[in-house]
Amino acid sequence: MSYFPMFIELNGRRCLVVGGGGIALHKIRVLKEFGADVLVVSPTVLPEILELKGVSYRRKSFDRSDLAGQELVVAATDDAEQNRRISELCREKHIPVNAVDQIKDCSFIFPAYLKEGEVVAAFSSGGQSPATAQYLKEAMRQVLTPLLSETADRLGKIRPRVREEIGRQSDRKEVYRRILRRALESGEPPSEDEMARMIASYQKQDSSRVLSEQGNNRIKQSGDRMDVKSRELFEAAKRHIPGGVNSPVRAFQNAGRTPRFIVSGNGSRITDADGNEMIDYVCSWGAGIFGHAPKRVVEKVQAACGRGLTFGAPTEHEVVLAELIAESVPSMEVSRLVSSGTEAVMSAVRTARGYTGRDKIVKFQGCYHGHSDGLLVKAGSAALTTSVPDSAGVPWDYTRHTLIAQYNDKDSVEELFVLYPNEIAAVIVEPVAANMGVVLPEPGFLEFLREITKRSGALLIFDEVITGFRLARGGAQEYYGVTPDLTTLGKIVGGGMPIGAYGGRREIMEMVSPVGPVYQAGTLSGNPIAVTAGIETLTMLKEDPGIYQRLSDQTEKIKHAVTDAAGGQVCVNQIGSLLSVFFTSARVTDYKSAAASDTVRYADCFGYLLDHGIYTAPSQFEAMFVSDAHSQEDIACICRVFSEYFLEN
Known about the structure:
Elements: E1 14-18, H1 22-33, E2 37-41, H2 47-51, E3 55-58, E4 72-75, H3 80-92, E5 97-99, E6 112-116, E7 119-123, H4 130-140, H5 146-165, H6 169-186, H7 192-206, H8 228-238, E8 262-266, E9 269-272, E10 277-280, H9 295-307, H10 316-328, E11 334-338, H11 341-356, E12 360-364, E13 377-378, E14 388-389, H12 396-399, E15 402-405, H13 410-419, E16 424-429, H14 445-456, E17 459-463, H15 475-480, E18 486-490, E19 500-504, H16 506-509, H17 528-543, H18 547-566, E20 571-575, E21 578-582, H19 591-595, H20 599-611, E22 614-615, E23 624-625, H21 632-648
Parallel strand pairs: 1-2, 1-4, 2-3, 4-5, 10-22, 12-15, 12-16, 16-17, 17-18
Antiparallel strand pairs: 6-7, 8-9, 9-10, 11-19, 13-14, 18-19, 20-21, 21-23
């Protein structure tokens, strides 16, 4: 196990302790010291536990219902096997858990700690040697004195001034170091006036500092990474490409920055035109599950290029990829390859209409299904109105059969089926919404969609362009155990090359030409280069069944680091290797709650991350992706930079 040290706010947090013995007593005392709301579940407890004030108690054996509403869990029974089972249940529900004497089953540990005033110092050996942690604690007692605590309190009072007057974070840290050094040398904390003079003195020393690199007179301020070449390329691009980019989000428009023009990528890193290397958490919007330029995929693609780039004719590799898709996603018994996710969704909707003989499609506000005319819509003033086009150039008549429901709102879907009986051809949904930021389906929501479509004679379409092969080999439908009638794929299925696919039961897909009346064609459909990349990527996933748990564990570390560092400022939604940080303190469960996020704060955080070598989505309403190429060091780096951002902001 590898633990990242961080502090979390326990005051008022609901903490469950399972067990009533001496170890449980120790854990309860620690939790109560820091203000946690503790519930103890055990058939028997020590009298000392009953004497503790503010501790709730259930005299019973533990069962999974005890986890409801809990934010932290401590498994402190005398039964190691029970502690392990409790840990497994907590991990399934994404609840942080500490299992006594089961270090491999812990998602957090209790360190040895010292507390002096508002200063807390923690010591840990990662659970391997508690004695070592205790030794460090005793040694630190000589250092952590009331002097340091009082100095820290005064630093907190002048911190807003330091942040306002000193731009670079490294310079702020130097000011804090000088103040602490003065306190240790003099034996008393500097007064606020003295600290103000130290700040002014440092500013004077720093005011003339100008950085240049390789003879280029470029000033590097506030930690910004240089982007001169990217700026030049962006200006040139705007002369011949709309907005300077070939997909709108790449323009960094919402972030107020210049887009980075990328020249190469390897593993978890990308390098821009100015030579800045960044850890990439966009991963080509999820396509790069193995990171950039995975050796096996590149070698197969290079060999395929030598045999020809495109034929416009059938190839054996198309059969192999179709078989791999059917094996991985059993609901896709028969599939058709296309060139993009947009094309896959457009074709799946047409197939659903052809199969059912109905016209209307239900989609959800905030779910994006590509830019085909019929789906490029959003809700009107009420959830039950038909949609109006969300783009110029799309006639209303193209979208009049598109109905809008609210994600995670069963009633909004039910009412549409009541209003339009026997008219709805299909419900299309991102099983995990990832285009309004990551929004998870509430328990029972996907099952409800499956039931109501079956009952009404409509088809259920899962748009798994993002979730396909990312949450599991079988996508979200495997993860949640809900089988749709049609599925659309993109991104990972092409291994980084342009490709899409749609498929479903044979009886539905045999509506597609040339065997059926639903027409769909494409010159580059089944392109041999893209198909080759897809085959190798899906083969690598098949050979490595542990990849999804690895990715989830890595991503959870980011989630917990951000949640703890932000102290309630954000809502972090995460599932598998998908994650979004919403700048709102409320839960995000649908488009409305996502849209309430503070996009200005998000843009500021995005810029901070970018300036510190972390490349994330430039929009609040996109996802963060973790790849198998991200190392423990990469994860620790983004956790640290996020923590520093919230410390400074």
